[in-house]
Design goal:
Length: 715
């Protein structure tokens, strides 16, 4: 699979390099509206009123629902002319498009290619995805079915594309295509797999080994084939149409086949549901859209990114989030160089919460030039490992919306480990990127002073070699828990692939749960600044390891029989190891540090992350006078001559959804002595800022007031 991803990355780079000129979706940030259930009634809305409402909200693009999907898509509810329509309806598309274009709205047709009605599926039984047990898939969104990209359904689908492309549309958005955890084992997939690999399709139940790797590769490649052929069909009618799909999320994508690195060469935009939030929001990271946007930037190869955000508090489709939550979803997205998509319902027009989106749309439209062609200036990176997500027992998989396949083990929870490390960096106001396995193996790493590997358990030999080289050349690596203990198909190694770098060997066991136990420092060290010199609360699980030539900074204590079992004794299990290697350094936490941070937010655990950055990778900017609930993003333009400091303020009541943001006052931004900035000003609440210098030549600006969002521009 890594060869397939590497080839896809090269093809993507070549395609972007050969692009003659920017298309409309590449010129400026896109502001997309999707009015869900737009055609749920038999009589469509008035075209003028429909387009006017979207324009008044400030959107410049849309996902236009032109096929009724209540209960699943079929061929009887097309509101455009199609040769494969089962029923003739009003040609609403012809009426509507002139009104949208008149108002500057680019219309991308919303085409659901993963949810069809059971009745339509019964008419075409050979199109349906098939479960491993031989039965056709059912129960999609409780009452529908799904079709397979390798079946004759694709011909029907391509004819729909030709019919849509005959209209002056601006592109197609595919909702899907996806596989499911136990599909697809239809005759067409079996035949294709046998032709490519010379053997029968393996089971999806065994999630490790070469057989499973080939199955994941096959399904991702099948989706890529479908996207490639879709583009060819569209461009045969109109070469200027955009095509993209609802892509892979920051999660395990083995269940759906949506591997972004494989699929993005066949798309014009990379999008994912980073802003779908719901249920108990206190358990949802405030910065979920931000982290997804950072990962998409890594995976997109320079193509535009879109974060899909639901304006409703899921699962209640007709219950809008409060205005502050909507502003924060929007701000976290655009601060991290992605475009926005917001899904609303027809019943939401005129509701006061939507004023938040109107204000944000107006702001970005006025300041579009400050969001075009920006580059991250972060010198720290956190790895999200798709390989680990797909092959490791401690990962779960998202399917569609909020349906999930839970991980086989809660020990080593990959999502929690990543979120905790990311939260510690965000709380310390450290700008950082989110990179992936492909970055580690194939792309330059020298821009990063420090890279964090939060339980990157599954790692290829090639990635391990690149990581060792990175440290030798001066980088700092911070790894946690079972990092590198499995190969890239999920087979456990006898020892860490990075054992030499860690300065430790595994003893092959995981200790825990350590519910009321402790860790003990060996001696003062900058990484332990601000912590007790005696006892620090223990992480819940850790890998039993023995140090070789690394310096232990923390040891676990021997387990207590109960919380009041006396003062604990020190064990032989190292908890934190520091090893110098070449010009760089390796820090290894044998415990599940990230999951501990996400679960308990203890200052000592947070401090291990922030102290590492201060010691080995101090950021270019520092922020004073702001709590940990402020996200700081640093981006540049014009070869670094313009700096853009994005500040997203999540400070509100101690619960979610946030009803009101607490404004912050006199937030100070400390800058290096070079480059010398001549002027500073803000964008959201426009005002000039004074630039002051201290005795060491460092520059400082003070922001008088920070509400939900502000951008400080330095030139």
């Amino acid at each position: 699979m890594k060869k397939l991803i590497a080839v896809a990355a090269v093809l993507l780079w070549c395609a972007s390099s050969l692009s003659a000129q920017e298309r409309w979706w590449e010129r400026e940030p896109i502001r997309i509206i999707d009015v869900t259930s737009d055609l749920a009634k038999a009589e469509p809305h008035d075209p003028v009123a429909n387009a006017s409402k979207k324009s008044e909200l400030g959107f410049n693009a849309e996902h236009l629902a032109i096929m009724q999907i209540a209960g699943g898509l079929d061929d009887e509810h097309f509101y455009f002319v199609s040769s494969v329509a089962g029923k003739k309806n009003i040609d609403y598309l012809k009426q509507y498009l002139p009104e949208a274009h008149k108002r500057g709205i680019h219309s991308l047709i919303y085409f659901d290619v993963h949810w069809y009605s059971e009745a339509f599926g019964e008419k075409h039984p050979d199109w349906r995805q098939v479960r491993e047990n031989g039965k056709p898939v059912d129960g999609i969104y409780d009452n529908g079915t799904s079709f397979c990209v390798n079946s004759p359904w694709r011909k029907w689908c391509f004819q729909v594309l030709r019919d849509l492309a005959a209209y002056p549309i601006d592109g197609i958005f595919y909702d899907g295509p996806v596989y499911f955890p136990d599909t697809c084992y239809c005759q067409y997939c079996r035949e294709k797999f046998r032709r490519i690999y010379g053997k029968e399709m393996p089971s999806k139940k065994i999630r490790h080994g070469q057989d499973f790797q080939q199955l994941v590769e096959f399904q991702a490649n099948s989706l890529a084939d479908y996207l490639r052929d879709s583009r060819e069909v569209l461009h045969s009618v109109n070469p200027n149409l955009a095509l993209y799909m609802n892509g892979g999320v920051r999660d395990a994508n083995w269940a759906t086949g949506r591997l972004n690195r494989v699929l993005v060469p066949q798309q014009d935009i990379l999008g994912a549901e980073g802003g779908f939030i719901g249920g108990n929001l206190t358990r949802v990271p405030l910065w979920k859209p931000s982290l997804t946007a950072r990962l998409l930037e890594t995976q997109a190869g320079g193509k535009p990114r879109v974060i899909f955000s639901a304006a409703s508090h899921k699962p209640w489709t007709f219950s809008l989030l409060p205005g502050p939550e909507l502003r924060l979803l929007y701000a976290g997205t655009i601060a991290n160089a992605a475009s926005v998509w917001f899904g609303i319902t027809p019943y939401d027009f005129g509701r006061p919460q939507l004023q938040a989106l109107t204000e944000m749309n107006s702001f970005q439209a006025r300041n579009a030039r400050y969001y075009e062609h920006t580059q991250s200036a972060a010198h720290v990176a956190v790895v999200w490992s798709d390989t680990t997500a797909n092959f490791y027992e401690g990962s779960s998989a998202q399917l569609i919306d909020f349906d999930r396949v839970r991980q086989a083990s809660d020990v080593g929870d990959l999502d929690a480990e990543f979120n905790g490390v990311a939260e510690a960096l965000l709380g310390a106001h450290v700008p950082f990127d989110v990179i992936d396995d492909t970055t580690l193996e194939h792309e330059p790493l020298d821009r990063y002073k420090a890279i964090f590997l939060p339980n990157v358990a599954c790692m290829s030999d090639a990635v391990a070699a690149r990581v060792r080289e990175y440290v030798q050349q001066g980088g700092t690596l911070f790894s946690t828990f079972e990092t590198s203990l499995y190969d890239d198909v999920g087979i456990r190694r006898p020892d860490f692939a990075l054992a030499g770098l860690f300065g430790a060997h595994t003893e092959g066991k995981i200790a825990g749960p350590m519910r009321w136990d402790f860790m003990k420092p060996t001696a003062p060290d900058p990484l332990l600044n601000g912590m007790s010199p005696d006892l620090i609360p223990s992480l819940v699980y850790h890998v039993r390891a023995s140090a070789t030539d690394a310096r232990p900074l923390l040891y676990f204590t021997k387990p207590l029989r109960g919380r009041y079992d006396g003062v604990p004794e020190v064990s032989d299990d190292p908890a934190l190891l520091l090893r110098r290697s070449g010009k760089g350094a390796s820090i290894y936490s044998s415990g599940n540090l990230g999951a501990g941070i996400q679960g308990f937010h203890l200052a000592e655990w947070l401090g291990l992350i922030s102290n590492t950055v201060r010691e080995f990778a101090p950021p270019s900017i520092e922020v004073e006078g702001a709590p940990a609930s402020v996200e700081v993003v640093l981006r540049t333009q014009s070869q670094g001559k313009r700096w853009l400091v994005h500040l997203v303020n999540y400070t509100g009541g101690m619960t979610r959804p946030i009803q009101q943001i607490t404004p912050l006052h006199d937030v100070q931004i400390n800058l290096p002595a070079s480059p010398t900035f001549q002027r500073a000003f803000t964008l959201y609440h426009p005002q000039p800022l004074a630039i002051k210098k201290d005795a060491h030549g460092r520059q400082h600006v003070t922001l008088p007031k920070l509400e939900e969002y502000e951008v400080v521009v330095l030139e």
